[in-house]
Amino acid sequence: MKFLTRAGPVWLWALTLAAFAVQTDDYIVIGVLPAVSHTVQLSETVTGQLVTVYSLTYALAAPMWALLPLRISRRRALCGALTVFGAANFAVLLVDEYVPLMALRVVAALAAALVLPAALAAAGAEAPPKRQGRYLATVMTGLTGAVLLGVPAGTWIGALFGWRATFLFGGLLGVGALLLLLRTLPRAEAHAVSERTSLGVMLRPLLNGGVTVILVVTILTVAGNLAFQTYIAPFLAGVSSVSPTVLAVLLVCAGIGGLLGTQASGRLIDRFTPGRVFSLVSVVFCGAMLAFAGLWLVRPVPVALTAVLLVAWSAAAWAVPPSIQSLMLTRAGTEAAAQAMAVQSSAVYVGAALGGAVGGGFLAADQGLIPAAAAGLAFLSLVIMVPVMRSSTADHKRVRCCGRDHRRQEGPSQLTPHSLPTHRRASRLRPHVAANDLEGAVDSDRPVRRERLLPVKRPGPWFAAAGPGREKLR
What we know:
Layout: E1 4-5, E2 8-9, H1 10-27, H2 33-40, H3 44-47, H4 49-67, H5 74-90, H6 98-126, H7 132-161, H8 163-184, H9 199-203, H10 209-229, H11 232-240, H12 244-271, H13 274-297, H14 303-332, H15 337-365, H16 370-399, E3 400-401, E4 404-405, E5 414-415, H17 423-429, H18 435-443, E6 448-449
Antiparallel strand pairs: 1-2, 3-4, 5-6
Helix pairs in contact: 1-6, 1-7, 1-8, 4-6, 4-15, 5-6, 5-8, 6-7, 6-15, 7-8, 7-12, 7-14, 10-14, 10-15, 10-16, 12-13, 12-14, 13-14, 13-16, 14-15
Transmembrane segments: 48-70, 77-95, 101-123, 135-159, 165-185, 206-228, 234-256, 277-297, 303-320, 341-363, 369-388
Membrane topology: Multi-pass membrane protein
InterPro entries: MFS (IPR011701), MFS_dom (IPR020846), MFS_Efflux_Transporters (IPR050189), MFS_trans_sf (IPR036259)
């Protein structure tokens, strides 16, 4: 049974909820840090390492999970990881010491390192033609929503019911995603990783220059964004003299801009190419950063102007990941989607660490140079990406045949049922089809094979009733 809504299949929103859960759980400690420190009787500096260890564990575990030659379906991997993730958060209710709490955070991070790459890979693999960008962007919305809604909600829950309730909230999010995935994730995912045989076979799609370039670009773009985002509070206080209350409002506006940018990016990717979208949003990002650098020279400036630039920056920053992920999936192929997304997730954390270091260095030297440094890193990533974008555009043009865009989702010898919405429209797509294959493909997830072809006479654009010189589908 398929569960569909106007906004997309329900399983896609289940994957988005899974991404929302693991991203919220990463930073949820920040809002309850004083309370946790009081309970474990340690300083906030030491307790804050719960976030550091979670992020480090995730960065190291994501490629490890993806490259293990395990014969397990992506669906089972997702559901198993979400089960462990929920249990690790629920177990926080039973501990009140630092070491057991740290151990539970490590377990939760190990599970999260499997959830997010698998969710992105499943969204990309199951997306119909011309909708891969939108599906990836929808899952990425879960990450944006975690920053905008998840962490504040966890902080509010912790203030009302105690800091342990915050982790209970994270566990409930994971269990909710688990139940939805069990009910709605397509059965086709049961065979998504069944062909893994050896480490060499899984690494082969990743060992090419294009994938390496995309990983480097991922590190640079994340570093440029985090160099500014990490120190956004002191920068905004300096450029517009904002109070903590105004800062909170500005951050909410930035979060809304990020949500809009993510969704717009997905639609643009499906309409044009990932390379063009990456170029566009990178230029917008650089423009916003250079504008902030210019405003620093004439500070203080009106808060309204700062808010407009902040929304533009956030929209461009969150529009970058779907385009890079789409380029990565194109280069690595759907068979290596999980490995590609896992390695790229680790690259994101490397970029985050680099961005924090770069931003901190410029903060010590001259705070007004932080946006310029961010723009420089983003421009460097754009220059490095040019060869990959040219190659991607050439591949996109080669796929176009006779004015019809056949996206190679299932390989050159297959058509997915998404491209066969009805018997009549399918007949216009291909003049020769296997009648029994077409009928089964429309009603199920079984792909149509080109090898079994039966000539079908077609007098016009529509199949008419059976008669002299005419045939109809059985």
